[in-house]
Design brief:
Number of domains: 2
Shape: globular
CATH superfamily of the largest domain: Aldolase class I
Helix content: 40-55%
Largest sheet: 8 strands, parallel
Number of helices: 17
CATH class of the largest domain: Alpha Beta
Bound molecules: flavin mononucleotide
CATH architecture of the largest domain: Alpha-Beta Barrel
Length: about 325
């Protein structure tokens, strides 16, 4: 998730679930081609399995970026066709690409030809182009209605990217509005249409489908898994990472359970922090993902303040994490 997640966040989340497939935030193909590739693509081996999400619309650039992702050790290459931000649309990638299925198919084919990894596509159930919308139809009406024309466009899009080699369709079950809604509103106002995603699954029984949008509990996830191959969690996993442990326990009842405690998490992150600081990393870049760890627990507010203020102090290091745990719970970590 752009501006939220990064490799430190993925390392943290991995501690809650050994098997969840973690995704990078969208990284543009152009940045990988022309930017600091090692910084953009570097990750810790413990993050596996991890997928690289690319943004772009030029088949050749995407092919080179996908190959760079394969060389860097990623497990999957994903193309973003779901981001509705104006900034992204003006670069001609993200959700606006759903209006150009042939172009996306060309991109997917080029990516598949350049890597041996699975190539997947993240999409929405539909797109409302507010610039092309009839003026008498409000945005709210346009996002709320879902008619046969909407479904036919989605069906055509999925069919074309699948024929081009897309191995998994990841579908955010909301329409995206291009222009007229902020990215945040675009994740909240358009109603969730899991029924549409289920219809896609029925129409493409051989294509693995992952549903995304508004999933907050392991029972909601298990409900969706009765008709599709996977669920993708965004905000809930970021704000309440224990949902990943709950899902792990529900999906792998025969595996030894993680019994992850908050203090074990902090100890794991203290080790990681020591390694990262030695490489020149910043403590606050790591701790910013961990502020919600004690959410809903006694001492949560004190922990949060202690961690965020302490991480900015000169000379602060891994011990800050242990002291934060001690503050929140009275737990003592032996060093
Ligand atoms: C801050 C933020 C940044 C996001 N960035 C991306 C992104 O880079 N790529 C992507 O596919 N989706 C991105 N998303 C969308 C999420 O992946 C997800 O589709 C959406 O939040 C709905 O799922 P949720 O209800 O589980 O959060 C972002 C969401 C948020 C909140």
């Amino acid at each position: 998730m752009m501006d939220w997640t990064d490799r430190h966040c993925r390392y943290f989340l991995r501690g809650f679930s050994p098997h969840a497939l973690l995704y990078t935030e969208m990284i543009t193909a152009a940045a990988i081609l022309r930017g600091d590739r090692a910084r953009l693509l570097g990750f810790d081996p413990e993050e596996h399995p991890v997928a690289l999400q690319l943004g772009g619309s030029h088949p050749k650039e995407l092919a080179v970026a996908a190959r760079a992702g394969e060389d860097a050790g990623y497990d999957e290459i994903n193309l973003n066709c779901g981001c509705p931000s104006d900034r992204v649309a003006s670069g001609s990638f993200g959700a606006c690409l759903m209006l150009e299925p042939d172009r996306v198919a060309e991109c997917v084919a080029a990516m598949c030809a350049s890597v041996s990894l699975p190539v997947t596509v993240k999409m929405r159930v539909g797109v409302v182009n507010s610039h092309a919308r009839e003026p008498r139809v409000s945005i709210r009406e346009a996002v709320t209605k879902y008619d046969e024309a909407d479904y036919e466009s989605l069906h055509e899009f999925v069919g074309k990217v699948r024929s081009a080699g897309c191995q998994v369709a990841i579908i955010h079950a909301r329409k995206a509005v291009l222009g007229g809604l902020s990215p945040k509103d675009n994740r909240e106002i358009p109603p969730l249409r899991f029924d549409v995603v289920e219809r896609v699954k029925q129409a493409f029984p051989q294509l693995p489908v992952i549903v995304n949008g508004g999933i907050r509990t392991s029972s909601e996830a298990l409900g969706a898994l009765s008709w599709c191959e996977g669920v993708m969690l965004g905000r809930e996993a970021y704000h309440r990472p224990f949902v990943l442990s709950e899902l792990h326990a529900a999906l792998y009842p025969n595996e030894p359970q993680l019994q992850t405690s908050r203090e074990e998490m902090l100890e794991r992150m203290a080790h990681y922090t020591r390694k990262e600081l030695a490489r020149g990393g910043r403590l606050s870049s790591i701790t910013r993902h961990m502020l919600g760890l004690y959410g809903g627990q006694p001492g949560a507010r004190e922990y949060r303040r202690f961690l965020s203020e302490g991480a900015r102090e000169a000379g602060a290091g891994p011990e800050l994490l242990r002291n934060a745990a001690r503050l929140a719970t009275g737990y003592r970590v032996s060093t």
